[in-house]
Design a protein that fits this description.
By secondary structure, the chain is an all-beta fold. The chain contains 1 helix and 30 strands. It is about 0% helix and about 40% strand.
């Protein structure tokens, strides 16, 4: 917020009778007869930064090509439905840690924690493994364990909701009401270190939200606009899906179809580049992006499922895949596909599989996508309701 200050004359009157700052503050200042006070204009607030070039009107989009994924390799053997497994997809090595839970990886991808025991959801022993040396360390009893950061693990104790934070270096335990890493958040950090915050602006199914991009280092507001979905798309850019334009009557489940426009937004310029208009078919419309590609699936839950389309940001071309993927991108630019954690890694340039996890339930991954884990896990809902 900037205020005009030109022409402001501030006179500081010094009084020999002032004994201190408090008395000086209470003194009534007088203006010299030779100087007239300047009347300041009312402060003005600059409008919030907006994104130029966004629109919702559909523009028919035809893919430039249609391709199929390569032949799927055998991959790792199917999960035995009880063991905690760790898969190294770089070296093609698997490790069975015995009966236990799905693993949780450290932010630096070097370690994993899990709960050992036949019923880990209700209680077992928390363990940590160093993924480079296979050295294991017991962390005591628990029914949930997850990394908060590289130096601390949050543990929920068996038979209660009592929780504690374990400092891995000192061994000290701090009782807490809730484990921070277990709490959902509507704020994500972009590769540039900006904070992207979402605020819901509509009732379920939350098709219109307010998004605010700010720099926490300076407190500066960078962008503020309304959209359906927004995600980081590599340095200096965002991928934006505008609120769907709905048409026609709701189906038997109350869902209404429509279209949704996709854009790439240049953060510095505050300008949007149109990518495509996609069909919008609830309840599961998927969007992802990185520095090279934008990926979306218009009807993941359809019968038959809708198609996935891949936009090449360099070439400006769209490829329709003969596949329906619930996917995101890994830090190395691979497509990570799977509704409850990726079971397949796919090269977007060649559309060949680079890793396949055998049939399993939920799958967790290290942040660098070198290691994957499967194990016993609690139930949850799905993308298709």
């Amino acid at each position: 917020m900037k205020f005009a200050a030109a022409g402001l004359v501030v006179l500081v009157l010094l009084s020999a009778g002032c004994k201190g700052g408090e008395e000086a503050t209470k003194a009534t200042p007088t203006l010299s007869a030779q100087v007239s006070p300047t009347v300041l204009p009312s402060p003005t607030v600059s409008p919030s930064p907006t994104v130029k070039g966004l629109f919702t009107d559909p523009r028919p989009t035809v893919p430039n090509a249609t391709r199929s994924l390569g032949e799927k390799p055998a991959g790792f053997p199917p999960w035995d439905r009880s063991s905690t497994m760790v898969y190294d997809v770089v070296d093609g090595v698997e490790m069975n840690l015995g009966t236990g839970s799905l693993g949780n990886f450290s932010p630096d991808s070097t370690r994993m924690v899990w709960l050992a025991g036949p019923d880990p959801i209700h209680g077992g022993e928390a363990w940590m493994i160093d993924l480079s040396t296979n050295e294991k360390r017991s962390l005591g009893p628990g029914r949930f364990a997850a990394f908060i950061d590289n130096g601390r693990v949050g543990i929920v104790l068996p038979g209660s909701n009592n929780s504690e934070i374990l400092d891995l270096r000192s061994g000290q335990r701090e009782p807490v009401a809730r484990i921070p890493s277990a709490q959902p958040t509507d704020t994500v950090v972009t590769p540039d270190g900006y904070e992207l915050r979402k605020e819901s602006r509509s009732d379920y199914p939350f098709l219109e939200n307010a998004f605010v991009l700010s720099d926490p280092r300076t407190g500066r507001l960078l962008l503020e606009f309304e959209a359906y979905q927004v995600f980081p798309a590599g340095p200096r850019s965002l991928v934006v899906a505008m609120p769907p334009v709905l048409s026609g009557p709701p189906d038997s489940l109350g869902y209404q179809r429509g279209t949704v426009n996709i854009f790439i937004v240049d953060i510095a310029a505050g300008r949007a580049e149109f990518v495509a208009t996609s069909a919008y078919t609830p309840p599961a419309w998927k969007l992802a992006a990185d520095t090279a590609y934008v990926l979306w699936t218009d009807d993941f839950c359809g019968q038959p499922p809708g198609k996935t389309r891949l936009y090449d940001r360099r070439a400006g071309t769209i490829t329709e895949l003969n596949a329906s993927l619930w996917a995101t991108f890994t830090p190395d630019g691979l497509i990570a596909s799977g509704a409850f954690g990726a079971r397949e890694l796919i090269d977007p340039a060649t559309l060949q599989y680079t890793a396949v996890i055998g049939k399993a339930g939920d799958v967790s991954w290290s942040p660098d996508y070198r290691y994957a884990s499967v194990g016993i896990w609690g139930g949850h809902g799905g993308q298709c309701g």
